[in-house]
Amino acid sequence: MTKDEALRLALEALKSIFASTHPYREDGTCTINDDSVELSNKAISAIEEALAQRTWVGLTDEDEIDWEEGGNLKDLVKAIEAKLRSKNT
Questions:
Q1: In a 3-state reduction of DSSP, which class is residue 69?
Q2: How many domains are there within the chain?
Q3: Do 8 and 48 reside in the same domain of the chain?
């Protein structure tokens, strides 16, 4: 499991637990500890922010670029772009 997959799972669990506990009554008072609500909201925000940040994955010497020798420079650039896109999606 990747870090992003683990974060998505934790986020889903937190939101599910938080939603199912119904921490607020109809009159707006809280049924659980205010500190717990605040901590849960901070955790959800932190996970969402972490998932929004992307870590760039570049090419290594071992990466093979699907390009025919003798092709033009534009084809090489497209092949490199395709390889980078596949590694960073």
A1: coil
A2: 2
A3: yes
Q: Measured between alpha carbons, how far is 39 from 63 in angstroms, rounded to an integer?
A: 43
- pLDDT, averaged across the chain: 84
Q: What is the value of pTM for the model shown?
A: 0.51
Give yes or no: residues 48 and 66 share one domain.
no
Residue-wise pLDDT for 75-84, tens only, equals 889 999 999 9
Same domain, yes or no: 47 and 61: no
Tell me which of 20 and 46 has the higher pLDDT.
46
Q: What is the DSSP letter of 63?
A: P
**47 C-beta neighbours (distance < 10 Å), count:** 19
Residue corresponding to tokens 């870590």: 55
Same domain, 66 and 87: yes
Work out the pLDDT band at 38, boundaries 50, 70, 90: confident
